[in-house]
Please model this.
Amino acid sequence: MSGDHDNPPLSDLDLRVRALESLLVEKGLVEPAALDVLIDTYETKVGPKNGAKVVAKAWRDPDYRTRLLSDASAAIAELGFTGRQGEDMVVLENTERCHNMVVCTLCSCYPWPVLGLPPVWYKSAPYRARAVSEPRGVLAEFGVSLPADTEIRVWDSTAEVRYLVLPLRPAGSEDLSEEALAELVTRDSMIGVGLALSPNKNAGYAT
Model:
């Protein structure tokens, strides 16, 4: 009986996922070992840390930044980050005058190799609608307040094109290594609903 209280109850979504997984395995449509490899790949081998490495290299290496902005897919592949949902990439550079923000208004198209799996809010109907109609309001809810004269550009991902935002490099980071710079890059800053962290603040990844 005590074991019943050790773990929190599963959500409806978790229960549906587990039921579907069990059904697919039972019918022989999915091998459990293959499923484990797939899950491990997207949980540990792809994700925001990959994108952070891309951003950090672009901040430190002007030649790489130029290649990244002209042919993102090839430049990202230079670092070994390729795969499904990352075939056709475009990188959007934030500047003092222009802030880019990414959404997928139809579903949840997302660059898995550099950002991992999309967060729940990215797939939600309110974000998909309001990111286009009132981007400043959405940014404010994420804690981002931009000057009134900063242009906000909203980019709609599609099945053909995925976007990655190259955030502004934070002040005071000029002498940092690529490894240290990568610690300042959050997932949200690469979607455009956040900013890179200040070197004076604890680095970490948004969840």
